């Protein structure tokens, strides 16, 4: 009769390290939430990335993080990957002689991923799907209680902007995105910015004297409810917005608007894109939150939204730059 395994898929044992050593034909996979850690190579039929730390020779050359489907995972042993949502994989205990090497190791998800990852070097995290990273050669080096935990995310960020389906974000300026005629949990959705650029929300048409972008969803169960919903900016704001209800276009900086409780209303592929005033909407190397941008192929000359060869001259740009420098953002300001 085969053994019933709890937590490891190969046996209920007090010490999994001893079990693997005694039964070297058994799998050392552990997983949850569609993720699996393997210490003996990639898993057939799954999407896997190597999670090697080159400076740690204790068995990490054959370890992989696998997913049931491709979710865009990437691994970096050289710091977080720009433009992705990265989680530091580290073991800081005195037992790990290579702790300094792991300080720069990250597993990353796309910025618009529906999932969020959290690392714990002290056991599982409550209310999350967690699985142990067990490298048999690291026994006694502090890795026994290390877990990667998976949960659904409620926040999606791009640049200075974040969409939240779980309330306003501390220390950011947020506008409430409520649509009273849509009952699918929109009462707790907000669009936030690290800098106050004068955003306002209207569910009753565009606001006079402002540049307004229609936030609609033709495939919603109540499309007429969203036909008169607008996100508005002052005329001299450092950004312009554009809305897409069927996925984000290539080459633009876009924030995903994802409401898990309204997927039947097609709110799973919606994006708001932000481009500095005076550009064509594409994000080039050298873009910054104040609205300055570098043209393709240029490394030094920058242009302000006014067209001057300077750092930007509008009053809101100046205010934005000062707010970033001084950290002078307001806490939970809601329009």
Structure in words:
The structure is a single chain. The protein is mainly beta. It has helices at residues 16-22, 99-102, 223-226, 315-326; strands at residues 30-32, 35-38, 47-50, 64-67, 74-76, 84-88, 106-110, 115-120, 129-132, 147-152, 155-158, 161-164, 173-176, 190-193, 200-202, 210-214, 230-234, 239-244, 254-257, 270-276, 293-294, 302-303, 333-334. The protein has two domains: 16-152, no CATH class; 155-334, no CATH class. The protein has four helices and 23 strands. The radius of gyration is 24 Å and the shape is elongated.
SSE arrangement:
Elements: H1 16-22, E1 30-32, E2 35-38, E3 47-50, E4 64-67, E5 74-76, E6 84-88, H2 99-102, E7 106-110, E8 115-120, E9 129-132, E10 147-152, E11 155-158, E12 161-164, E13 173-176, E14 190-193, E15 200-202, E16 210-214, H3 223-226, E17 230-234, E18 239-244, E19 254-257, E20 270-276, E21 293-294, E22 302-303, H4 315-326, E23 333-334
Parallel strand pairs: 13-23
Antiparallel strand pairs: 1-2, 2-4, 3-4, 5-7, 6-7, 8-10, 9-10, 11-12, 12-14, 13-14, 15-17, 16-17, 18-20, 19-20, 21-22
Keywords:
335 residues; mainly beta; 2 domains; five-stranded mixed beta sheet; four-stranded antiparallel beta sheet; 8% helix
């Amino acid at each position: 009769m085969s053994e019933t395994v709890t937590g490891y898929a190969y046996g209920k044992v007090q010490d999994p390290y001893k079990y693997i050593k005694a039964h070297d034909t058994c799998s050392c996979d552990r997983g949850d939430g569609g993720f699996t850690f393997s210490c003996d190579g990639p898993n057939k039929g799954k999407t896997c990335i190597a999670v090697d730390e080159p400076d740690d020779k204790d068995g990490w050359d054959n370890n992989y993080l696998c997913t049931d489907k491709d979710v865009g995972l990437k691994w970096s042993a050289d710091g977080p990957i720009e433009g992705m949502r990265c989680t530091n994989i580290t073991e800081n205990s005195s037992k790990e002689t290579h702790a300094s090497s792991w300080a720069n190791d990250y597993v990353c998800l796309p910025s618009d991923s529906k999932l969020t990852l959290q690392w714990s070097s002290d056991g599982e995290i409550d209310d999350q799907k967690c699985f142990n990273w067990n490298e048999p050669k690291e026994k006694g080096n502090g890795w026994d209680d290390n877990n990667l935990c998976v949960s659904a995310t409620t926040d999606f960020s791009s640049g200075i902007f974040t969409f939240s389906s779980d309330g306003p974000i501390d220390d950011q300026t947020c506008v409430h995105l409520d649509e009273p005629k849509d009952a699918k949990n929109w009462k707790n959705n907000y669009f936030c910015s690290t800098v106050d650029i004068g955003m306002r929300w209207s569910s009753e048409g565009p606001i006079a004297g402002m540049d307004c972008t229609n936030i609609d969803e033709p495939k919603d169960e109540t499309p007429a409810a969203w036909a008169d919903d607008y996100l508005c900016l002052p005329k001299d704001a450092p950004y312009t917005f554009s809305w897409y209800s069927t996925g984000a276009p290539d080459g633009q900086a876009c924030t995903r608007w994802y409401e898990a409780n309204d997927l039947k209303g097609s709110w799973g592929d919606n994006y708001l894109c932000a481009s500095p005033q005076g550009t064509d909407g594409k994000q080039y190397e050298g873009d910054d939150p104040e609205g300055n941008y570098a043209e393709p192929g240029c490394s030094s000359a920058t242009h302000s939204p006014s067209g001057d060869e300077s750092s930007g001259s509008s009053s809101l740009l100046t205010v934005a730059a000062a707010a970033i420098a001084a950290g002078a953002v307001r806490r939970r300001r809601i329009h």
